[in-house]
Amino acid sequence: MNARPIPSDASLRVTEIFRSLQGEADSVGWPTVFVRLTGCPLRCRYCDTTYAFEGGRRMSIPEILDEVRRHPVRHVTVTGGEPLAQKACLPLLSALCDAGYRVSLETGGALPLAGVDPRVVKVVDLKTPGSGEVERNRYCNLEHMGPDDQIKFVICDRADYEWARERMEEYEIPEICQVLMSPAWGELEPRELAEWMLADGLDARLQIQLHKLLWGDVPGR
After folding, report:
1. d(CA 206, CA 200)
2. Structure pTM?
3. How far is CA 43 from each of CA 47, 91, 214, rounded to the nearest angstrom?
4. What is the pLDDT of residues 169-186, one digit of tens each?
5. How far apart are CA 27 and CA 220, in angstroms?
């Protein structure tokens, strides 16, 4: 695919750009550069990146690319906050793909996915009742997802688990993309969630936040 021109006026508010190990999704464990964009329209009860709600510094897409190139990695994740809340996120994603990176997008799923570059792996956090933002889910986004993409459920308790299982069946999500189940950090023991999944033969993968196991709840790791 030919590189797309970068809009001359495209810039974004960026909270941080850092290198770490990918802690979630199907690229877990890979050295990855994270581009954390500023701002989010949601207020999930268990959010661990509230420091990204405000502030940040304005950067052009070439400036972001220059910063990413400082790190010897193949994988780049654009996250937030909610990255799709900034319109220039879309050309940023395409520019990263054009530069040869394996790009993933971490999004809450409350905003449209239709304009996301098809080369980007989409990791969509479908909000459970325990998040406090369940009414914001856009199920029509499933139309723009495929086998390489992932729906993630953050599970706070048994009620969240049952709700997630029902949504999987209602929308036939395992037929569309991968399904990830993640215990809410500090709220649900991973073993308990694993036992529920095994008992039900659930067509989903358990994920535990690797970066938190390694470094704890430290921003920028």
Report:
1. 13
2. 0.92
3. 7, 26, 26
4. 999 999 999 999 999 988
5. 18
- Second CATH level (architecture) for the domain 11-215: Alpha-Beta Barrel (3.20)
Asked if residues 88 and 10 have their Cβ atoms less than 8 Å apart, the reply is: yes
Structure tokens at 95: 């520019």
**In the chain, domain spans:** 11-215
Residue 170 one-letter amino acid? E
Whole-angstrom distance, CA of residue 126 vs CA of residue 181 = 11
10 Å Cβ neighbour count for 104?
28
- Considering 6-10, 20-24, 164-168, the range whose residues carry the highest mean pLDDT is 164-168
- H helix or E strand, kind and range, residue 77: strand 75-79
Cβ contact 43:90 at 8 Å: no
CB 64 within 8 A of CB 34: no
